[in-house]
């Protein structure tokens, strides 16, 4: 019979062998000698549509491009030229840049534009050889390799770049995630990071994606560290803020959700964690990413409200939790119901109105949402983590998350009882009271009444000029048409 020390050493050896085996498969890549199980490679069907982002769809290729697509291609080529000039004379604070980002970065320009917005080239220049060092260390010490391997094999499998097992992009995704788990040991790896890094790799090379991912995680403008760290403190903060906005702007829908036990955490995880990828059409999620990289994480809150506002009437017709969640998690991805331009114009209006009423950003982040330990300094994991032994009990942080969710649901139930009648008609214009001072704003965000602190103002999600402009632009295009791949 083995002693405890011998058993522990045997488990450590097994973990090291498994890690080396997985890394070897990624090193071989598409080499014919690499072992790939039949189920890991979906069969190709060349008669499917493959859109310009590389995603395959269950419909036949058209015989020819229609006049609208030809016109869109001509317009995008002209916009390419303007972006070339703007990138050569880069000014991130120029109003022209903001206007063009809201129009959508041309797909061919996303590679250089996203690198500029995330300061990728500067990070690479000041951290020469760091990525390769982290990757080398991960091959020896990564404790996340098994989970990363599983997630790589699930990420974007309907996209040509990631579809084949151990393809170049799959290898890059595996490398980036393992290297980052060593670079930021306090964070390690969280599943949502695979989707974020996957989007970046559609437009960047491997090391570029690594530093872009780091910018999204540690830069205060994006601060995704707080989303992925144990306990998800930023998610909790954003969910609470989302509930406050819902209660003020769409009380009827908020009450409808509460009646059917539809907590925001059930439908908004992929909204907040991966910036709407796989929850809305990919072409639209890229437009949101463009704005997110320019404006920061306040865009996520505004887009969440925009989605619910645009689809409010349909959501109010759904009478149980399952159908509401299916609508938000599945149906909107397949058919958003509005074309991308219309949705982004609605987002811009929402951002403007939320800012006017000081609701565009949640309360300040706490220190646990940011890295507290130096990045890039290797820290060897403890034995339990190396072995991969599962804990039998929740940690204190996990218990606190559960407690926070329950408390938020109870608070929502109390607040809903004090709002307008469930039968009251809700329209685009909602009357809000705006506090006159910051202390009152903090109080109102904490759930207290604002009635005694200021005068009543009208919160409207419609802007007459923009709305008229949009209506004219859509005269020849059905409003409820999804333009995938445009």
Textual characterization of the structure:
The chain is mainly α and 486 residues long. It has a domain at 233-364: Cyclin A, domain 1 (Orthogonal Bundle). Helices cover 58% and strands 4% of the residues. The protein contains 25 helices and four strands. The strands form two sheets. Strands 1-2 form a two-stranded antiparallel sheet. Strands 3-4 form a two-stranded antiparallel sheet. The longest helix has 25 residues, at 4-28. The termini are far apart. The model is unreliable at 419-459 and 462-486 (pLDDT under 50).
Over the alpha carbons, how many angstroms does the gyration radius reach? 24 Å
Q: In what order do the strands lie side by side in the largest sheet?
A: 1-2
Please give the number of β-strands: 4
Q: According to CATH, what is the topology of the domain at 233-364?
A: Cyclin A, domain 1
Give me the number of helical elements. 25
Mean pLDDT across residues: 81
Distance between the termini: 65 Å
Per the principal axes of the C-alpha atoms, what is the gross shape?
globular
Low-confidence stretches: 419-459, 462-486
Strand content: under 5%
Percent in helix: 55-70%
Can you lay out the helices and strands and say which pair or pack?
Blueprint: H1 4-28, E1 48-50, E2 56-60, H2 67-88, H3 95-103, H4 110-117, H5 120-126, H6 130-141, H7 145-152, H8 160-163, H9 168-183, H10 192-201, H11 206-218, H12 225-228, H13 233-249, H14 251-259, H15 264-267, H16 269-274, H17 282-295, H18 298-310, H19 312-317, H20 321-334, H21 340-356, H22 383-387, H23 396-417, E3 429-433, H24 438-445, E4 456-460, H25 464-473
Antiparallel strand pairs: 1-2, 3-4
